[in-house]
Amino acid sequence: MSSTRCRNESADFGEWKKIFGFQKGVYPMTRKNRFISSIGLGLFLISALAASAPAAPAADEPVKPPRPLKIDDLFALKEVYDPQLSPDGAWVAYTVTATDLAKESSDTDIWMVPAAGGDPIRVTSSPKSESRPRFSPDGKWLAFLSAREGKRTQVWLLPRSGGEAVKLTDFKTGVSDVVWSPDSKRLALAMRDADPDGAVPGGDDEEGDAPAAGVEKPKTPKPIVVRRLQFKRDGAGYLDERRRHIHIFDIAGKTAIPLTSGPFDDSSPVWSPDGTRVAFVSNRTLPDADSSQDRNIYVVEAKAGAVPRAIVTSPGEDDSPAWSPDGRWLLYIQGCDPKDMWYGSNHIALIPAGGGTPRPLTASIDRNAYAPVFSPDNLYVYFLLEDGGNQPLCRVSVDGGTVERIAGTDREVQDFDIAGKGPVVVLEATTERPAEISAVGADRTLTRLTHINDEVLKGIKLGQVRRYKATSKDGTPVDAFLTLPPDFKEGTKLPAILRIHGGPTSQFTTGFDFEWQILAAQGYAVITSNPRGSTGYGTAFSRAIFADWGNKDFEDVMAAVDGAVAMGIADPDRLGVGGWSYGGIQTDYVITKTDRFKVAIAGASGANWLAGYGTDHYQYEYETELGLPWRNRDLWLKLSSSFFDVEKITTPVLYMCGALDMNVPLLNSEQLYQAVRRIGKVRTELVIYPDQWHGIRTPSYQKDRYERYIAWYDSFLKPKGALIGERKLEATSLFGKPLYPAAAPADRKKTLEDELAKATSEFVKNPDSADAVLRLGLRTTDLGRYREAIDIYSRGISKHPGDARLLRYRGHRYVTVREFDKAISDLSRAAGLLKGKPDIPDTDGAGSTAVQGASAKPANTLQFSVWYHLGLARFLKGDFQGALQAYRECLKAAKGNDESLVSVSDWLFMTLRRLGRKDEAAKVLDVVRPDMKISENMVYLNRLLMYKGTYAPEDLLRTGGSDVDLATYGFGVGNFYLMNGEKDKARAIFEQVMKGPAWQAFGYIAAEAELARMK
Q1: Mean residue pLDDT across the chain
Q2: Among 554, 492, 560, which residue's Cα sits nearest to residue 526?
Q3: Phi and psi dihedrals of 1011, rounded to 5?
């Protein structure tokens, strides 16, 4: 059951505590992600090239630089969770989850690793998932849960001495929890009552576990009969009167007895050290447990017919009992004051095992604490703490006192375990990597035990996450995070996206967040914050928005945006906003309160709260915070302002939701979409994911959602002409602007793709051929995939280091992606290789010129092209003397070819003028005539004629042509003004060029370089 409203769900390793929420006082479940292996054509080419390369790279082979994150990396990464130490402290069992996109499913297997470090061992490998590995206290068995046989999750036992796992239980309902008795002879099991009609339920418990694969729904489902006050739950659907209870299972006899019963849900069973009693959690409010959330701690003798006794009876949501090693005390999470609901902080408390007065241990720190356990020596209590954007492992003396932070500074500890011997182990994540298991040393240093995702991450360059403080409108300090693109350069402004977390009672942390990173990889600055309403900052901070949503928290997230703008990083004219669940709800408030955002995405959001009542699963929470709508209608209408103020929206907005969502049901998104679409002032879309609850779990839908995020944001925050959907960052401009490949012209796309396919086939047949590598790189370039082409040339150079052609083309592409030093290095090497050798045509080996494309005839020689591009790279760097030397050599190689002559003369003229050698520059124009035999380089001829006075600058600007032609003419005109002292006119022309889409054109790059020098 969720007591946190509409948690954010961002698919960044699932982070289920943000999808469905978590019970106050129950440690949130560990993060989950999805795995996919999807090899596109580009990746296949790289793999083929890698297979043909030498086993050990050549000494001069450049190291392949890390690439930006891609959407598919979400599925390449695996999840690690649930660390469990063996009784002797020698081994750690844990689970690893991977996802198969084709099968639209995930598979979880159990692994073990030595607690002292070493190679991991895979324990299970069935095609169905195994979870909750639990060592028997005598160390002989490993129990786990799986539906590997049949339709329902059952208990399995694996002998640690060797052998196959055996199925232990065969209940008519699924088992959701398993706990060993101290003597290793019995199990305490939690499971939902079986359906008397024998039908397989939609889930084994109210938390909505999906039915096992292969379960067939009845052809004609039975009518749904609703009698409960709490009659629905996201992920589980409509609730019937079956409840979850505790059972004791005898292993030797394979018999079970019910330990609890009645119209209540019981959970979290734990055995007393002597094995005579079981403590558990239950809400047994009479006459109807659905009318409150008063969970208490009960103890019952471990025998049939025993009557549970309430040990903790405080009015809050008490949870997570744990026995002291001596059996004298019960440790538990004491819920906050019910009037504070989910906004209040819980804390750790002790109570005598027989009942009595609780002893608070952490109430003074006013932070949510989770997962308390005693240390084996009975002296300390270990627990997790939500604390200002971090989640450390802490401990406190059983006598109270100062809370010590054991591990987790600037990271998120998601789980931990302690055994009688061996180290404390933690599942911990940082902003740079997903969660892995580490051992905590005596000096509190962390030693990694698992390295599940290291291989994937080593080839990826992630963005830096910076923390900063913002000041809200009323002076309240707000914790914020800024995630930057991987190749961010200080001093550049970026399009920025504000992402808002769900809850609202949750927090962004210093753990890994895929969503931050994938948006940053697209060239965005990603702004996130923990506004009022967030946990981790105390009850007053969280409760500040009680019955007042979209005001103080709105001011706080806007302060975070203002902070990023003040840093000079976030471009105030290119801002986007979005979030899921309460993050989507807050987005709806934001776009009715300000027009600063150019684009918005509201996922699983709501605005008309009268429509929410009775259609979502928050009946108790609504009544506690807002009162009943027919009794407190003014407040309900006030909080629904983002629906009734819908005509104020000037921001294009994308709405998204799961079709089955019972947390923030689809009807909320439908209403908002209908209203915005009916008004018709801004562009809007509604995306509905079939068969999905509040959290989007189907892998292909997760991928689709990120593709739509990027496409929608790009449509309004990126220049026209960029591809939408998943795209690879090709370059970053000299001003920090991310550059993506433009879409291939529709009339040529099929031809270009066919040519690439042909070049690929030729390469696969003959991977050792330099000609095959060259053609493959050229055809890849034709489709705007410059980074991929650079990689292809690089691997070719490793096999053919003396082939000047490969260096020439890689150097050319380094110019395109603004890596001028690398271009100069390659082209200088190529010039050295060609020195004293006969010149050859600059072709791709198939009779076509590599510069102009597959349909053109040879125009330039290889030596000409090498010197030409070397001169260009030096010119762009501002090394005009070096450029002059290169162009002098290039002029020699032109050999009377008019096409070559005009192109080099143009750059030579400009270089001489930059050096102040006006008379020499004028002599360059002597050879320029209107009747020269030109077909491909007419733009250069016209620029030269302008310099000569035949045309006025305005004549060139009126000429028209392709985007590349316009950039080329634009730079020529701007340069004309610049060399004649009209700097302001030149700047205006250069800026106009940079508004065009042809960022790969030399004219565009040169205009960019000139503007950079003018700054």
Answers
A1: 86
A2: 560
A3: -60, -40
Query: Taking Cα atoms as reference points, which of 57, 44, 68, 65 lies closest to residue 791?
Result: 65
**Mean pLDDT of all residues in 854-864:** 64
CA 653, distance to chain mean position in Å, is: 21
CA dihedral 766, 770, 771, 777 (to 10 degrees): 100
Question: 339 — phi, psi (to 5°)?
Answer: -70, -20
DSSP helix/strand/coil, 984: helix
Distances in whole angstroms, Cα of residue 862 to Cα of each of 633, 797, 855: 79, 17, 18
Cα–Cα separations (whole angstroms), residue 325 to 166, 187, 375: 31, 19, 8
- Kindly write down the DSSP assignment for every residue of 269-303, as one continuous string: EEE-TTSSEEEEEE---SS-GGG----EEEEEESS
| 459-494 tens-digit pLDDT | 899 999 999 999 999 999 999 999 999 989 998 999
Measured N-to-C along each axis, helices 820-834 and 804-816 cross at an angle, to the nearest 10 degrees, of 160
- List, in order, residues 6 or more apart from 514 with CB less than 8 Å away: 10, 11, 12, 13, 33, 69, 73, 74, 77
Retrieve residue 363's tokens. Answer: 């109430």
Q: Per residue in 402-458, pLDDT tens?
A: 999 999 888 999 999 998 777 899 999 999 999 999 999 988 999 999 999 999 999
Evaluate if residue 340 carries a pLDDT over 70: yes
Q: How far apart are CA 459 and CA 94, in angstroms?
A: 26
8 A C-beta contact, residue 133 and residue 83? no
DSSP 927: G
- Which residue type is seen at 382? Y
Tell me the per-residue pLDDT of 246-299, one tens digit each, with 9 for 90 and over: 999 999 999 999 999 999 999 999 999 999 999 999 999 989 988 888 999 999
3-state secondary structure 619-639: HHHHHHHCCCCCCCHHHHHHH
d(CA 316, CA 338): 5
User: Rounded to whole angstroms, how far apart are CA atoms 456 and 460?
Assistant: 7
Instruction: Report residue 222 as tokens.
Output: 């039975």
The backbone region for 317, taken as left when phi is positive above 0, alpha when psi lies in -120 to 50, beta otherwise, is beta
Place of tokens 């490949």: 741
Q: To the nearest whole percent, how much of the chain has pLDDT over 70?
A: 88
Is the pLDDT at 859 greater than 90? The verdict is: no
Residue 140 has pLDDT above 60, yes or no: yes
What is the tens place of the pLDDT at every residue in 628-656? 999 999 999 999 999 999 999 999 999 99
User: DSSP secondary-structure letter at 212?
Assistant: P
For residue 527, what are its two tokens? 């702004």
Region for 422 from its dihedrals, namely left if φ exceeds 0, alpha if ψ lies in -120 to 50, beta otherwise: left
Compute the distance between CA of residue 697 and CA of residue 75 in angstroms, rounded to an integer. 12
Residue 591 CB coordination number (10 Å):
27
| End-to-end Cα, the chain, rounded Å | 58
pLDDT score recorded for residue 855: 35
Closest CA to 610 of 658, 661, 644: 644
